[in-house]
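SAMPLE LOG
Freezer: B-3
Tube label: C17
Construct: single chain, 166 aa
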Amino acid sequence: MTLLRPANAEDLGFLLAAEAAASKAGFVSANSREEHLAAMSSPDAAYFVIGDCQGYAIFLGLQSPHHALELKRVVITAPGQGLGRRAFQELLRYAFVERKAHRLFFDAFDDNARALHLYRGLGFREEGILREAALRQDGYRNLVLFSMLAAEYETWTRAPATGRSR
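STRUCTURE (predicted):
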């Protein structure tokens, strides 16, 4: 059973509420309704609802000539229950199996310890720190740039389980 389903304009109320809560907590930046509607209609973006409105994810770069997808945003409304890990496994499958991506990348705030732990545990590589790259209410914040290549995904999915969920 898949945790992901394509999002549509009817999901926008949920998406905006989830995004507002995550933005207030300092985990993501927020977009306007108009920005989301424009992105949802773009062939270069894909929006997904996670579970029964328990989160959402946004991919950008579906038309990249380099086969590089950006995971622009992932929000889980009730973290700490394993849903983020399961959702990421399906997001990885979407990127590398369905979309045939060569590279998947994203950034995360460097003080989001729970997320950083998850990304490292899933095999993402840290490419560096984008110093003071995001202006938030409390000042500039650093972002950690993460990526995974298709060959790394292939290796990771074939590796025997070593205490990690796949």
